[in-house]
């Protein structure tokens, strides 16, 4: 049961370095001791199966140990997504019935003596709630059971699909940043440790300097950051000869942009496709079939209904936490509706064709257009509001708003942007707010948002 595989790996790792933070190097045995201490402290405070624990931690050895310890004692773990408003954080903690643990609290738990630790989670209990950004107004949580986490491939070399087996050979020094409780950051972190690599903390994760400074061989990167890295290397190149793998996360990456990245950075870009609800769906080898997102591993099942992709993976979430209405709509008969349009070609490669939902992906954060439009329309000066996505070299995609004024009123774009920022958070904030006389109409008479692009 998760995280037994990680505990066994660290318990038997001895003096092997597993985490590096500046001049500090933490061995496997020391990391295992940190987990034992924190787990003892959590148990002393009554944490175990059925209890909720919300983690808001930095990027250091103690944060990683606290994340694994929280799973080891069997709690329901959720990582706090960045950029939440105070109201969103309060809502999240109340809905999850979770206690917030920060770096100060973890430091206090380290005072407990180490004691034996094992995986105490129950298979059908929710192990992890992976929260979205809250772009719909409040964060939405994907609930993943201990059984599902145990079925994941990262900690088990015998389960690695060929592309993951190749990726694992390149994770000697895996650069970590942001939050170690992040789904993607933790998944590749466990893969790196299982492959014999070391997690290397970046403070801050400024690319490309962080790769050079930390001698990193691999990291996760958003589409926007990848574009910035390519531009930087063209204008003022640095020595990235040690870089072996960049796992692109979040926004769609066009074939042209992918080709440019490979030309500039070399065969290091692993381009894939996944969702919070499903985990990884498919991934390409560097330079493989640039017009696709790769071939799904054999353990993933895919089907296409009326053009929409449905997916079933061993480690998928089982529902949205305390949201039965949305769960019924998306989790259907063991399948997950991706709300993405796709096709599979004769060679089994997956092609993404568009979205059935009105969303913008900003720095790997899913932003829904509807809540932004509704919020903008609450301003007395706004009669109608429309939100679209545009490609953005810095963020992958960016939010752009168009507003039709109330007769006799003049909308204030700065005020409208502030309204969105304070209510829905930074990722939802429009890059531009444009005042228009009327929205273009389709032949049906309905608003034609595509014409605004």
From TrEMBL:
Gene3D superfamilies associated with the record: 3.30.300.30, N-terminal domain of ligase-like
Stretches assigned to the AMP-binding enzyme C-terminal domain: 372-446
Top-level lineage group: Bacteria
Domain AMP-dependent synthetase/ligase residues, every copy: 14-100, 117-321
The name this protein goes by in its record: AMP-dependent synthetase
Taxonomic path: Bacteria, Bacillati, Actinomycetota, Actinomycetes, Micromonosporales
């Amino acid at each position: 049961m998760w995280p037994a595989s990680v505990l066994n790996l660290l318990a038997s790792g001895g003096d092997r370095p597993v985490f590096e933070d500046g001049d500090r190097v933490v061995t496997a045995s020391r990391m295992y001791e940190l987990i034992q201490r924190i787990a003892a402290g959590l148990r002393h405070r009554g944490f175990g199966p059925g209890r909720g624990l919300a983690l808001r931690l930095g990027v250091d050895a103690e944060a990683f140990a606290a994340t694994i310890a929280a799973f080891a004692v069997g709690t329901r773990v959720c990582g706090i997504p960045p950029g939440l408003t105070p109201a969103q954080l309060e809502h999240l903690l109340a809905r999850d019935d979770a206690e917030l643990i920060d770096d100060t609290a973890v430091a206090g738990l380290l005072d407990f003596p180490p004691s034996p630790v094992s995986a105490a989670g129950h298979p059908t209990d929710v192990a992890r709630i992976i929260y979205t950004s809250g772009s719909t107004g409040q964060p939405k949580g994907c609930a993943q059971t201990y059984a599902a986490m145990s079925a994941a491939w990262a900690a088990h070399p015998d389960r690695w699909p060929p592309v993951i087996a190749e990726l694992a050979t390149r994770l000697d020094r895996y650069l970590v940043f942001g939050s170690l409780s992040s789904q993607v950051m933790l998944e590749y972190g466990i893969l790196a440790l299982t492959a014999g690599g070391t997690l290397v903390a970046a403070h801050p994760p400024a690319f490309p300097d962080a790769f050079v400074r930390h001698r990193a061989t691999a990291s996760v990167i958003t589409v926007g950051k990848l574009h910035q890295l390519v531009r930087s290397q063209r204008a003022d190149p640095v020595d990235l000869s040690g870089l072996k793998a960049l796992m692109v996360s979040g926004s769609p990456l066009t074939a042209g942009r992918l080709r440019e990245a490979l030309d500039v950075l070399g065969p290091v870009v692993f381009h894939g496709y996944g969702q919070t609800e499903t985990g990884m769906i498919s991934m390409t080898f560097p330079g493989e079939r640039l017009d696709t997102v790769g071939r799904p591993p054999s353990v993933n099942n895919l089907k296409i209904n009326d053009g929409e992709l449905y997916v079933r993976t061993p480690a998928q979430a089982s529902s949205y936490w305390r949201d039965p209405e949305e769960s019924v709509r998306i989790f259907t008969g063991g399948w997950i509706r991706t709300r993405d349009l796709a096709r599979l070609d004769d060679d089994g490669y997956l092609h993404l064709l568009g979205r059935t939902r009105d969303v913008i992906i900003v720095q790997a954060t899913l932003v829904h257009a509807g809540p932004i439009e509704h919020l903008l329309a609450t301003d007395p000066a706004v009669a109608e509001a429309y939100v679209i996505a545009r490609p953005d070299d810095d963020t992958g995609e960016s939010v752009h708003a168009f507003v039709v004024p109330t007769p006799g009123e003049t909308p204030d774009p700065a005020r409208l942007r502030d309204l969105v920022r304070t209510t829905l958070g930074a990722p939802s904030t429009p890059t531009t707010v444009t005042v228009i006389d009327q929205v273009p109409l389709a032949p049906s008479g309905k608003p034609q948002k595509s014409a605004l692009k």
